[in-house]
Amino acid sequence: MNLPTLESINLLAVLPVLIVFGWTLVLLVIDLFIPSGRKYWTAWLGILGLLGAAVALAVRFIDARGAAVTAFDGMLTVDGFSLFLQAIFILTAVIGILLALDFLPRHKIERGEYYILLLFTTGGMMIMSMAADLIVVFLALELLSIPLYILTGFARPRADSEEAAMKYFLLGAFASGFLVFGIALTYGGTGTTSLVGVFNQLAEGEPSRDLALVGMALILVGFGFKVAAVPFHMWTPDVYQGAPTPVTAFMSVGAKAGGFAALMRILIVAMPAVGEAWGMLVAILAMLTMILGNVVAIAQRNIKRMLAYSSIAHAGYILVAVSAAQRPEDAPLAVSAAIFYLLTYAFTNLGAFGVVLAVEREDGSGNLLEDFAGLGRSKPVLAAIMTLFMLSLTGMPVSAGLVGKFFVFQAAINASVGNPWILAAAIVGIVTSVISAFYYIRIILIMYMQEGEPQVVLKPALTVALALTALATLILGIIPAPVFQLAKDALLTLVG
Amino acid sequence: MSLTPLHAIFALMSLFTVGGAVGVVLNRNLIYAAMYLVLSLFGIAGLFILLEAPFLAAVQILVYVGAISVLITITVMVTRCVFCKEPPPRQLTLVAVMAALVMVTLGFVIMTRFGGLTPAADVPADSIEQLGVAFVNPQAYLVPFEVASILLLGALIGAIFIARDDLPRDEEAVGGDDHA
Amino acid sequence: MSDFVIFLIDAAVKAVLIIVGLVLGFAYTTWLERRFIARLQSRVGPNRAGPAGLLQPWADALKLFFKEDIMPTDADRIIYTLAPAVTSVPALIVLGVVPFGGQISLFGYQTTLGLADINVGVLYIVAVTSIAVYGVVLAGWASSNKYAMMGGLRATAQMISYELAMGLAILAPVMMAASMSMSDIIDAQQNIWFVFLQPIAAVIFYITILAETNRSPFDLPEAEQELVAGYHTEYSGMKFASFFMAEYMKMIAVSAIFSALFLGGYRFFGLENLLGGWMGPIILFVKIVASLAFMVWIRATLPRFRYDKLMAFGWKVLLPLSLANAVVTAVLIVLDIIPSFA
Question: Which of A120, A138, C14, C21 is the most buried if burial means most Cβ atoms within 10 Å?
Answer without folding.
Answer: A120
